[in-house]
Amino acid sequence: MSTPHDVTQLLVAWCEGDQAALDKLLPLVNAELRRLAGRYMRRERKGHTLQTSALVNEAYLRMVNQQRVQWQNRAHFFGIAAQMMRRILIDHARRYQYEKRGGGAVKVSLDETAAVTDARAAELLAVDEALEKLTAIDARKGRIVELRFFGGLDLAETAEVMGISSPTVQREWRAAKAWLHRLLTDGDAEDI
Questions:
Q1: 151-159, long-range: CB within 8 Å, 24+ apart, which pairs?
Q2: Domain of 102: which CATH number?
Q3: Residue 120: is its pLDDT beyond 70?
């Protein structure tokens, strides 16, 4: 059984150029990455063309190819993983809408296109756009939403990643949810 300290030590060693640390890291973080991906995929429509394993693999590949990241600890790693998974799903939804409108002129069968609905793709893109607007107004609240909602981190983990207190995370999480709700339901949320 690994501890958060083990993961942190391997992340630091990897940042310092130890490739063996990277090989040891995957088995330690794989279960948590799968849990995180499973949380994302449960929100998707059944039959989604992107599977949990593919989401984990794609996120992990993107993360190991990051050259400029100085991994701080386990929570930082999983915060970045959550961000990567969100981006992968958003890219997938955008590709679906692009292809649906004839972009790329790639022919697919009806069974393949049924996996992502217009409503689900539009909903995912609307949430992404709302989160981008929130982040433009208040980057910290945007990051909290990303870590809590998309990343599945609890208050303490989010506070650790952000370097702020749990009560601050809780207060800003509540304000951000209310602002996003107003924007997504009324289309109007000027101040936060």
A1: 151/36, 151/78, 151/79, 151/81, 151/82, 151/83, 151/86, 152/35, 152/36, 152/39, 152/82, 153/75, 153/78, 153/79, 153/82, 157/75, 157/78, 158/79
A2: 1.10.1740
A3: no
At 151, list the tokens.
């990343």
Q: pLDDT tens digits, residue range 86-111?
A: 888 888 877 766 555 544 444 433 33
Looking at the fold, whether 13 and 103 belong to one and the same domain comes out as yes
Residue 105, pLDDT score: 40
| C-alpha closest to that of 93 among 22, 21, 40, 137 | 40
Strands (E) across the chain are located at none
For residue 138, give both structure tokens.
Answer: 């208040």
CA 53 – CA 50 distance, rounded (Å): 8
